[in-house]
Amino acid sequence: MIDILKYRQLSDEIFDIEQTGTNELTIIFRSDADVKALIKRANALAMHKPDDGTFSFVFTYDNGRTIEVD
User: Fold this and answer.
1) In this structure, what are the phi and psi dihedrals at residue 49, rounded to the nearest 5 degrees?
2) SS3 call for 20
């Protein structure tokens, strides 16, 4: 189980976070969020807190549009 509480605390620009699979976390941003900065922070937190194991992120806006990450 992924500890999603620490990801919820990244910013008030996060609308919601859901564990959408055993190894997948969906982070839903508000439409006015600084997405690039928040994606960097989420990835950094995952790398510095390996106790959750390896998992992937799906990033979306609160309107349902998926964010493509390069």
Assistant:
1) -125, 70
2) strand
At 50, the pLDDT band (50, 70, 90 cuts) reads low
What are the distances in angstroms from CA 50 to CA 25, 30, 35, 57?
A: 14, 27, 23, 14
Chain mean pLDDT for the chain: 86
């999603």: which residue's tokens?
A: 4
- Per-residue pLDDT band for 52 (boundaries 50, 70, 90) equals low
**pTM of the entire predicted model:** 0.82
Residues of the chain by 3-state class (helix, strand, coil), percent to 5: 30, 30, 40
Residue 32, burial from CB neighbour count under 10 angstroms (0-12, 13-18, 19+):
exposed
Q: Report the C-alpha gap between 48 and 61 in whole angstroms.
A: 25
